[in-house]
Amino acid sequence: MALAAAGRVLLQAGSRLGRREVVDGARRFANKRVEVEADEAAGIAVMKLKNPPVNSLSLEFLTEFLISLEKLENNKNFRGVILTSERPGVFSAGLDLMEMYGRNPAHYAEYWRAVQELWLRLYLSNMILVCAINGTSPAGGCLMALTCDHRIMADNPKYTIGLNESQLGIVAPFWFKDNFVNTVGYRTAEHALQLGLLFPPAEALKLGIVDEVVPEDQVHSKAQSVMAQWMAIPDHSRQLTKNMMRKAMADNLIKQREADIQNFVSFISRDSIQKSLHTYLEKLKQKKG
Ligand SMILES: CCCCCCCCCCCCC/C=C/C(=O)SCCNC(=O)CCNC(=O)[C@H](O)C(C)(C)COP(=O)(O)OP(=O)(O)OC[C@H]1O[C@@H](n2cnc3c(N)ncnc32)[C@H](O)[C@@H]1OP(=O)(O)O
């Protein structure tokens, strides 16, 4: 119920943005930041993140992504989604730092609600989600991948994945932490979260952050073959099992959603946290010059 209401708000936000949909033979639809190649006969869609330069999860991106996902969820012909980046090299740089820096409390609250919504929608999706991680994926990018049922990462040692929030002077919220703990186990999560570690593919595989590492040019074909394997399982039994495994964790956020937003707003508004973000943003800039 709460999810449906939030979804309506996002749809309204989407139309406020005035984005026009491009429909190409009903097989491909795109808004500015998300491209969907939808093969209705096969029941599979490929969702490509395309929010240059680094697929950061801005409020506009989150809104467009949620609208595209909802379209697929509402069409019962679609059973599986492959999530990937349109720009190989960066899967997603995570939450958009500019949405959390130098804004007002109302903006922080709106942004955080959308971040929660993305996580809940992906984590509780009835569809099979396969993540084709074709680039670096820190923090919120990693979280997005963690919501999927199966993760395949490109074997490129330049790419890393993990929850690096503590390196930015911020804290991974409890539901990021829970999702991570449920994936890699408590001790690994405790260690990695405190140090804000980012792992190259081989290490990520060893720790269970990803399920498979394959040569870069095989990420998409592998995602298709994994999807075929998952599609062979009857939907009702797979969905009931997924729900049984995930519901308690999602409910834990749903029941304290407003408190979580308030925590985020007061945490991110602190002068000390804004200073940390400023320092990190400067570091990103200096890296270039
Ligand atoms: C008492 C306890 C209470 C607890 C309460 C908890 C409350 C909750 C607290 C807050 C929780 C927040 C959780 C946050 C999650 C996140 O996801 S934070 C984001 C983390 N992301 C990163 O650290 C990645 C940073 N980026 C990079 O490392 C690199 O950009 C890259 C991804 C490796 C790509 O490198 P490259 O291709 O070389 O591109 P760049 O030149 O570095 O970047 C291009 C431009 O993009 C900008 N940019 C990069 N990342 C981001 C980003 N995440 N958001 C916004 N913008 C980004 C970068 O600055 C460049 O900009 P220009 O200089 O203007 O070109």
UniProtKB/TrEMBL annotation:
A Pfam family annotated for this UniProt entry: ECH_1
Chain's role: Key enzyme of fatty acid beta-oxidation. Able to isomerize both 3-cis (3Z) and 3-trans (3E) double bonds into the 2-trans (2E) form in a range of enoyl-CoA species, with a preference for (3Z)-enoyl-CoAs over (3E)-enoyl-CoAs. The catalytic efficiency of this enzyme is not affected by the fatty acyl chain length.
One GO BP: fatty acid beta-oxidation
Binding partners and assembly: Homotrimer.
Pathway stated in the Swiss-Prot or TrEMBL entry: Lipid metabolism; fatty acid beta-oxidation
Keyword flag Lipid metabolism: yes
Keywords from the named record: Acetylation, Fatty acid metabolism, Isomerase, Lipid metabolism, Mitochondrion, Transit peptide
Coiled coil: none
Protein name: Enoyl-CoA delta isomerase 1, mitochondrial
Record gene name: Eci1
Molecular function per GO: delta(3)-delta(2)-enoyl-CoA isomerase activity
